[in-house]
Amino acid sequence: VCVQLVVGILFIFCTAVMIKQIYMLTNVDNIERKQIAWINIWPKSDFNVIDGILQQQPYINKTLHCFKPLYPLDYQYLSKIKNWDGKSVDQPEVEFDDYRITPEIAQFYGLRMKEGDNSFELGENEAFINETLAKRMNMDNPIGQFIEYGKNRKRIKGVVCDFQTQDPNTPVVPMVFNLPLKSSSNSPGYIAFKYEGDWNTCKKRLEEELKKKEVSYSKLADGEEFYQQYIKSEYNLLKLLGVITVVSILIAIGVFITGAILDDRALKTRTFGALLLIMMASCHIVFMQDDFYWYYITFSLGFIVMLVMPGYHLNKEAKKHVQGA
């Protein structure tokens, strides 16, 4: 029983850590990924036609024209900051990825501002940077300071909270956010959109509509699907834990039956607590619940049943024995 108790606690701890890790990777970030996709349109002559098709689909509830989608990442436009306020002689140039930002883009992706103007409004010679870039340049108070790259000299208006655009195990890259270019030759080539329902169903229906209209596009991508490929190993480990759960349940039931045959109330109660813990972990593995409060409440109840109740029954049996003597 003691071995069962130790194994049960270790099992629950590992399961809780794994579920919370996947939850952190998929939900706790400063950008929205779920049910957001984009289409890369080339040639751009079909842009308005495809835009109209997207607007007519009942399962698409919002669209956004953009030069470069924030997520999933399609390409990087890297440049280097050669100089900035407070730069020391021995500090190297800092490479960054260039993005275009408007209040509409920030709202669409749910971006958050760490410091500065929450409206995400930019002037002609202003820019936002992310937390990683501020740290890379050793800026303690970046608001109002200037950065220089290419032929540009921009005043930092705000610091955007870091968000991941690649593998979650890859460090966040430094980013600069500028206004979209106004040149007619630099018209948007992407349409990001939010959809309802399953992505595979949405993608199939949309591809059929685009095929009917005989329009050309380069790529159709979904943010959540793109991100899931990076955490396949975590999900595979959860499947393994699911198999262990089934085995643990069978063992717990066997011990419970043994306690019933021997009429050992303490053993039955302790096994019931262990079974409650294992079943709770199994439900969270299967349904991937995001609410961890219920997880730990159930864990606490199972732990109490496993440890406290057997002692209560043993104490009760001891009193009966003393009174009988």
Explained architecture:
The radius of gyration is 28 Å and the shape is flat. The longest helix has 33 residues, at 292-324. The chain has nine helices and twelve strands. It is of the alpha+beta class. α8 (265-287) runs antiparallel to α9 (292-324). It has helices at 2-27, 47-56, 103-109, 131-136, 199-213, 223-228, 232-262, 265-287, 292-324; strands spanning 36-40, 60-66, 78-81, 83-84, 94-100, 113-116, 126-130, 146-149, 152-160, 175-178, 190-195, 219-222. Strands 3, 4, 5, 6, 7, 8, 9 and 10 form an eight-stranded mixed β-sheet that branches. The chain has a four-stranded antiparallel β-sheet with strand order 2-11-1-12, with helices on both faces.
Low-confidence stretches at least 5 residues in length (pLDDT < 50)? none
Structural class: alpha+beta
Radius of gyration over all CA atoms, rounded: 28 Å
Q: Please state the overall shape, judged from the principal axes of the Cα atoms.
A: flat
Number of helices: 9
Distance between the termini: 29 Å
Helical residue percent band: 40-55%
Beta strand count = 12
Relative strand content: 15-25%
Main β-sheet description:
8 strands, mixed
Compute the average pLDDT.
Answer: 78
Order of helices and strands: HEHEEEEHEEHEEEEHEHHHH
